[in-house]
Write a structure and sequence with these properties.
By secondary structure, the chain is an alpha/beta fold. It folds into two domains: 2-171 and 338-353, 3-Layer(aba) Sandwich (Rossmann fold), CATH 3.40.50; 197-329, Glycogen Phosphorylase B (Rossmann fold, 3-Layer(aba) Sandwich), CATH 3.40.50.2000. It has helices at 10-23, 47-52, 69-87, 99-110, 130-141, 150-158, 172-180, 204-207, 210-224, 235-244, 259-268, 277-285, 300-304, 315-324, 342-353, and strands at 2-7, 31-36, 60-61, 91-95, 115-118, 144-147, 166-168, 197-199, 229-232, 251-254, 271-274, 290-292, 308-310. It has a seven-stranded parallel sheet with strand order 3-2-1-4-5-6-7, sandwiched between helices.
Length: 354
């Protein structure tokens, strides 16, 4: 069986690492060809993940990145179609909700190549988010939809996608944490406080408008006076902060880190503050409470379990949630994301499909 795996952004590298490791096992019967769209073209956001996670060198790097959503998706679609025509794969495997995800799914479906979507069924119900559009459209052209949670499965059922197409396998990011945790390492050249919160900030809805961005920065600054904040800063966010004249006084700003460094930070922090979808889950895997600087989340089960608090882009809400300390008694005992064998279940289903 020949599979083309389409990836392009940091969360997809991590998910693909877990699945690719299983696909490459002797006797799997799978020949995998990885195609990197180039969506994350900064070396700190891309190359380091391939090396430290032992992801095979991509069969092709399309070099598409840096444009608008329309430009990126269109250029990826054209280039991916060419790769698929040459390779004639039995399946195209896509992950998550990026422009790379949608381009891979559209290219394959128009060539009548079956599409398998890993992390299907997530919904924020905010159509202003590019990710929401990508995930909805990808789900509706996919042939097999691998969901991470019961909520995701129910979301698809509500949209008329059900039956044998939908397979609940758990979350492949949990697989990755279990496999790579022992290899975690501290960021080099940085003195991290004994007690700290770990923050990330990158979503366009938070960074493109000065009002939301300013509120989140103010919230981080105020929290840092009680619990130091470590912020690996996304290159795009760094540029916007500089152009907007925002100051991060009191916040320990560091360069983007690799996956093994990030899980080292996750394992040692007391609190996560983020607008990232993936980091909300990773916080849960490490038993760390999370304040999410968004107005909604696709990971609703975390909010329902009381381990994640939606604080929006509101400095007062961020500080109030932090000071309430309800997150210090959160329950992390429920197996919300499977048993760490998602990749094996994915391979089993693809082999069953033939």
């Amino acid at each position: 069986m020949k599979i083309i795996t389409v990836i392009g952004a940091r969360p997809q590298f991590i998910k693909a690492a877990a699945v690719s490791r299983v696909l490459r096992q002797e006797g799997s019967g799978v020949h995998e060809m990885i195609v990197h769209t180039g969506q994350h073209y900064d070396a700190n956001m891309s190359d380091v993940f391939f090396s430290e996670l032992d992801i095979p060198k991509p069969h092709a790097n399309l070099g598409v990145g840096g444009g608008t959503h329309g430009q990126n998706t269109g250029r990826m679609l054209e280039a991916l179609e060419s790769e698929m025509i040459k390779a004639k794969p039995d399946w195209v495997l896509v992950y998550g909700d990026t422009d790379s995800t949608l381009a891979g799914a559209l290219a394959a479906s128009k060539l009548h190549i079956p599409v398998a979507h890993v992390e299907s069924g997530l919904r924020s119900y905010n159509r202003r988010m590019p990710e929401e559009i990508n995930r909805v459209l990808t789900d509706h052209v996919s042939n097999v939809l691998f969901t991470p949670t019961q909520t995701a499965t129910e979301n698809l059922q509500a949209e008329g996608i059900h039956g044998g197409k939908v397979v609940q396998v758990g979350d492949v990011m949990f697989d990755a944490v279990l496999h790579y945790k022992q290899a975690a390492k501290p960021p080099q050249g940085i003195s991290v406080p004994d007690r700290f919160s770990l923050a990330t900030l990158h979503r366009a809805e938070n960074t493109d408008g000065p009002a939301r961005l300013g509120q989140i920065i103010e919230g981080l600054r105020r929290i840092s006076t009680d619990l130091p904040v470590v912020l690996p800063l996304h290159p795009r966010t760094k540029k916007l902060l500089h152009s907007g004249g925002f100051k991060l006084d009191g916040v320990l700003v560091i360069d983007p880190v690799g996956y093994l460094e990030m899980i080292w930070l996750l394992d040692r922090c007391e609190l996560v503050i983020t607008d990232s979808g993936g980091l909300q889950k990773e916080a849960y895997f490490f038993g760390k409470p999370c304040l999410t600087t968004r107005d909604e989340t696709e990971w609703v089960e975390l909010v329902q379990a009381g381990v994640n608090v939606l604080v929006g882009a509101d400095a007062n809400a961020m500080v109030n949630a932090f000071q309430d300390r309800n997150w210090q008694v959160a329950d992390f005992s429920r197996p919300l994301y499977g048993n760490g064998d998602s990749a094996e279940l994915i391979l089993s289903r693809l082999k069953q499909e033939g």
